[in-house]
Amino acid sequence: MLIKKGAEANLYLEDWHGRRVVVKRRLSKKYRVPKLDKEIRFHRTIHEPQHIHKAKEAGVPTPTIFMIDTVETTIVMEFIEGKQVKQILDDLPSEERQRLCRHIGELIGRLHNHGIIHSDLTTSNMILTPQGRVFFVDFGLSERSMEVEARGVDLHLMKRAFQSTHYRHAKECFDAVIKGYTRVVGDSVAKEVLEKIGEIERRGRYVSER
Amino acid sequence: MGIESTADDFSVGILSFDGKVLANVISAYVPEKGGIHPREAARHHAEVAGKVLAEAFQKAGIKPRDIHVVAFSQGPGLGPCLRTGATAARALASYLGVPLVGVNHCVAHIEIGKLVAGAVDPVTLYVSGGNTIVSAFEAGRYRVFGETLDIAVGNCLDVFAREAGLHEREGMPPGALVEQLASRGQKLIPLPYTVKGMDLSFSGFLTAAVQLLRERKHNLEDLCFSLQEVAFSMLTEVTERALAHTEKPEVLLTGGVAANRRLQSMLESVAEEHNARFCVVPKQYALDNGAMIAWAGILAYQHHVTVPLEKSFVKLKWRLDEVPVPWIGG
After folding, report:
1. What pLDDT was estimated at residue A142?
2. Residues A189 and A126 placed together within one structural domain of the fold
3. What single DSSP character describes residue A182?
4. Is A27 contained in some domain?
5. Are residues A120 and A195 in the same domain?
6. Are residues A169 and A138 in the same domain?
7. B130 vs chain A: nearest CA distance in angstroms?
8. Which of A55, A78, A101 represents a domain boundary (last residue)?
9. Residue A70: helix, strand or coil by DSSP?
10. What are the tens digits of pLDDT across the range A161-170?
11. Same structural domain, A52 and A152
């Protein structure tokens, strides 16, 4: 059963040897020339499980990978029962929303401490389980880096996701994320990354004042 | 009337209140060499302003006294260029005693696109020498879903073309020269593909492309081909992501790079896949033009958005998502 038709992959909910699994299939895109199409799909199919595994080592809940098929550019992984943070964030009481965002900030901090840059930090890529755990999914665009620049871009994305999808609480959410993030990476790293975000914003078309 | 002067074009458009374009006169500043020098471009604008205005009145078949509102592009753009257009607009508005409207350049691109290409509620990919933005309307504003983290894709193509020694001329911008060569290329040369969520980066991509150019190992046709294929695949991927996210019924392509056939066909393909209608803005309204400023000015004026002379300073970094758009209901 197709559960999501994304931009780069389709997600199917299927039964796999008695388990409920998500099958993530990266389909060929007609708009890309075949060589580039194949490279992108292959690259993402082999790298996504690696980053998902690394994230586990860092202490960030991610789905378990069951199978990788590089020919069909398909990944079979655990289905995480729960709700996308995107669906619930706006309706939470302010205090709980901040607690959730602080926790998300901590998880991002753990990823960064272990040199993982998610590269698609949005609230649709975070799943809150009934037990209260937050799972990060979709590591298709992730990369390894310890650089402040990469970390800044990553968090800047998170900020932008709040602004476009949760514009009513954007500042509250992002401030809470930074609070949790700082707790994990420490004051000096957090300060550096925050400064970098400011630089990224000034570099692009993000602020009216220089 | 709308006056556009954000970058290298000075343009005057005259529209009727029901959206009929009576005149759209564009004068482009073509640098002798290199890119746009803001001061030189502004000098060009000041020189041609009178002539362009006169031609617009003549084409529209109206007199200055027939103008009800003067709109100008208030930003974002190059300071000296913006100020030249703003000065002309202020002078006209105060001379005629009519209201002045400060228009956001990016909003104008989207609105004229909707008017002439017939889109109603699109995901818009706006690609030009200065901007690379994926946006859609949500809760009172055009939200920016994705954009470049550094340079615009048009800028990237322009710089590459110049580095390759391709000479632009009037009516043949650098991007068109790259497109011509790309159509004869076949071999895909690896270039960095940088997509971060719905954002993009072209600076490392450009550096790598220029590096390849200097190595002289590949022919120029293949390089142009690879440049386009990789850059446009990135643009198409983020547009598709925004489309999947917003589930809008249309895709609108606008800006100077919208003229590229290869980019058009790629976007058409993803629109089709998501059962969305693909709309591309015709060149004279996709490039910077006065008609789009006039049209966005009309929409704003009809919703009582005007700017007093003393507050009509230009905004160099005025973001698309800072602008309320009260003319869209719901």
Report:
1. 95
2. yes
3. H
4. yes
5. yes
6. yes
7. 10
8. A78
9. coil
10. 898 889 899 9
11. no
Q: Examine the domain organization and report whether A128 and A56 are in the same domain.
A: no
Check if the beta carbon of residue B297 is closer than 8 Å to that of residue B101.
Answer: yes
> What global pTM score does this model have?
0.91
Tell whether A203 is within 8 A of chain B (Cβ). yes
Please name the fold of domain B2-108+286-322: Nucleotidyltransferase; domain 5 (3.30.420)
pLDDT, mean of residues A44-55: 97
Region B248-255: what's the mean pLDDT? 97
User: How many independent structural domains does chain A possess?
Assistant: 2
Whether A90 is a known active-site residue: answer no
Residues B119-159: pLDDT tens digits? 999 999 999 999 999 999 988 999 998 999 999 999 999 99
Q: What is the pLDDT of residue B218?
A: 95
Q: Which residues of chain B from 225 to 244 reach within 8 Å of chain A, CB to CB?
A: 229-230, 233, 236-238, 240-241, 243-244
Its ipTM equals 0.86
The residue segments making up the domain with residue A151 are: 83-203
Q: Give the DSSP H or E segment for A20.
A: strand A19-25
Residues A153 and A80: beta-carbon distance below 8 Å: no
Which residue of A lies nearest to B236 if distances are taken between CA atoms? Answer: A31
CATH of the domain at A16: 3.30.200.20
Q: pLDDT band for position A210 (50/70/90)?
A: very low
CB contact under 8 A, B197 and A122: yes
Q: A51 and A110 in one domain? A: no
Domain-by-domain residue ranges, chain B?
2-108+286-322, 120-285
**Partners of residue A32 in chain B, C-beta under 8 Å:** 229, 233, 236, 266
Q: pLDDT-derived band of residue A209, with 50, 70 and 90 as boundaries?
A: very low
Per-residue H/E/C for chain B: CEEECCCCEEEEEEECCCCCEEEEEEEECCCCCCCCCHHHHHHHHHHHHHHHHHHHHHHHCCCHHHCCCEEEEEECCCHHHHHHHHHHHHHHHHHHCCCEEEEEHHHHHHHHHHHHHCCCCEEEEEECCCCEEEEEEECCEEEEEEEECCCCHHHHHHHHHHHCCCCCECCECHHHHHHHHHCCCCCCCCCCCCEECCEECCHHHHHHHHHHHHHCCCCHHHHHHHHHHHHHHHHHHHHHHHHHHHCCCEEEEECHHHHCHHHHHHHHHHHHHCCCEEEECCHHHHCCCHHHHHHHHHHHHHCCCCCCHHHCCCCCCCCHHHCECCCCCC
Superfamily grouping for domain B120-285 = ATPase, nucleotide binding domain (3.30.420.40)
Instruction: Report the CATH number at residue A176.
Output: 1.10.510.10
